[in-house]
Amino acid sequence: MVLPELEINHAYFTFIFPFNFRQLKRDELIEELEKNDFTLFDIENEQLQDKYYPEDIKISHKELGQFFYPFIEDKLFPKHEGKLGFFRYSKEIKLTGELHTPTVTTAFDIHSMDVWLCPANIGMIATRVVVKGDREISEAINFAHFFRVLEPQLEEEMGAYLTINGELYDTFYSLIKLDLLPFFEKYLVIYKDVVQYGGSVPFIEDERMYTTGCLLTNGGEVDETLLYRLGQMDGYGRDGRPFMSTTNIEYVRRYIQDHVLDRWAPNAYTITSNQAHMHITNEKQAKLLNSLGTFYSTHYYTVIIYYFYKIILLKLSFEHSEIEWENDKVIVDELIKEIMKFSSQYYFDEVAVRSEGREISTMLRKQFRITSQYEEIKKTLNDLYRTLEDQADERLNDLLFILTIFTVISGIYGMNLVIEDWGGKIDWAKAAHYSLFDWIAFVVALSGIGLSFLLVCQLTYRTISRRIKKWIRQRQM
User: Fold this and answer.
1) For residue range 223-250, what is the model confidence (pLDDT) as tens digits?
2) In whole angstroms, what is the distance from residue 108 CA to residue 133 CA?
3) What's the superkingdom here (predicted)?
């Protein structure tokens, strides 16, 4: 199949990398960010409206503040660090480099970076990257396809590397660890220390960053195959020609029906998938700046909200799957609290006031499978409650069974299990002459004393063990 090409003059990308940071080191992480010139974003500071964005792009803080419902706006734009919510720390980077792939070398600029500290110890690194100059759209897609890879696993991902200021980096993640955020890794939760998993972020999908993009074309028709390729991040094949991961045009059309918002067609389209949220337009210059301002403001925050929903739901599902019910009472209790806190304070069906925002929210919710994952988490919460209740009932029934036996035997003896030989100094030699009822009283009394001692020891052990496990988990998480 011959795939049509379009020429673009600019491609604007934001790559989002989620991570899980340690709660006890949150303040220390904030101090490190501030030492490295990251500034807490303040929506009331209008001087920041054009600070972190390329060229002449300016976002309106007033429009941004009015785009979301007040109950989510309060979480997205907290006034100070002590409040609950999403804290954005931003920094200008201004680096120029090249991405070398097996088929083409593409120059790019890194303009700025945001580090988000979100509820439930979820963090996100969002990096704004621009590919300038007239080039084929396949090259821009190819750039995004390789740049978003954190750890190459598949053959199609191999062979790419970055060069910046004469230095070579095998992936963008290497650049983060070595230069941009060299302190970053010591604040991560290493899940292999907590559960039997070999990675640091087990709930990130396929070791790739989520990509948002705004591509400006020099005119021409945006056809079905191009929209599909944008959603799937299909750039060049190994032969250096435009690539598409399907040959079935009917499949492409069904995909477009499911993933494309054509509200602004034929001049602009928005494609939302599990890999990317892309906007492509051939509008005039005046409208272009407006589209870019929207891309870096309202669309950006909407993606952040729903990507947070996706990550935290995957995190909760993962932690539930790793529970050892007999040993992880502390984790079960924390998981219940975390689910309830997320449901009551951060999860909302509607976040945007305007119809455009609601349509994009619907697309993101659908592609991220937010609703079905949330229903699964609610079912998980009910299962956790029911399991804990069943375990508590089972322990209570066992205790009542034991107490009933002692009560019945005591009742037979008229609540008197005392043998006269036990008074004063006990002469154990007389035990050989005990009657059957004396032996029953003797065994029941000793077992009762022993059982009481064991129950006290067990309760003490459980309490101390639970507190130690909680302390260890807090240190790890």
Assistant:
1) 899 999 999 999 998 888 899 999 899 9
2) 10
3) Bacteria
Q: What is the dihedral of CA 291, 212, 172, 318, to 10 degrees?
A: 150
CA distance 140 to 136: 7
Pairing, β 276-281 against β 210-217: parallel
Whole-number Å distance between alpha carbons of 235 and 469? 48
First to last CA, the chain: 50
CA dihedral sign, ordered 166, 167, 172, 176: negative
What angle, rounded to 10 degrees, do the helices at 436-476 and 370-412 form?
160
What amino acid is encoded at 429 in this protein?
A
Cβ atoms 109, 95 nearer than 8 A: yes
Identify the sign of the CA torsion 418, 423, 426, 429: negative
Residue in the structure block whose two tokens are 């925002």:
357
Q: Which residues pair with 100 in a beta bridge?
A: 105, 161
- What does the block give as tokens for 199? 């990675």
| Peptide bond before residue 266 is cis, with ω within 30 degrees of 0 | yes
What pLDDT score does 196 carry? 47
pLDDT band at 205 (very low <50, low <70, confident <90, very high): low
Q: What would you measure as the largest C-alpha separation in the chain, in angstroms? A: 109
Angstrom distance (rounded) from CA 183 to CA 322? 29
Tell me, letter by letter, the H, E, C secondary structure of the chain: CCCCCCEEEEEEEEEEEEEEECHHHHHHHHHHHHHCCCEECCCCCHHHCCCCCCCCCCCCHHHHHHHECHHHHHHHCCCCCCCCCCEEEEEEEEEEEEEECCCCEEEEEEEEEEEEECHHHEEEEEEEEEEEEEEEHHHHHHHHHHHCECCCCCHHHCCCEEEECCEEECCHHHHHHHHHCCCHHHHECCHHHCCCCCCCCCCCCCCECEEEEEEEECCCCCCHHHHHHHHHCCCECCCCCECCCCCCHHHHHHHHHHHEECCCCCCEEEEECCCEEEEEECCCHHHHHHHHHHHHCHHHHHHHHHHHHHHHHHHHHHHHHCCCCCCCHHHHHHHHHHHHHHHHHCCCCCCECCHHHHHHHHHHHHHCCHHHHHHHHHHHHHHHHHHHHHHHHHHHHHHHHHHHHHHHHHHHCCCCCCCHHHCCCCCHHHHHHCCHHHHHHHHHHHHHHHHHHHHHHHHHHHHHHHHHHHHHHHHHC
Query: What pLDDT, on a 0 to 100 scale, did the predictor assign at position 424?
Result: 54
pTM > 0.90: yes or no: no
Residues 6+ apart with CB under 8 A from 340: 381
Task: Specify the amino acid at residue 103.
Answer: T
> pLDDT by residue (tens digit) across 170-195?
999 999 998 999 998 888 886 655 55
Nearest to 125 by CA among 77, 78, 184, 75: 184
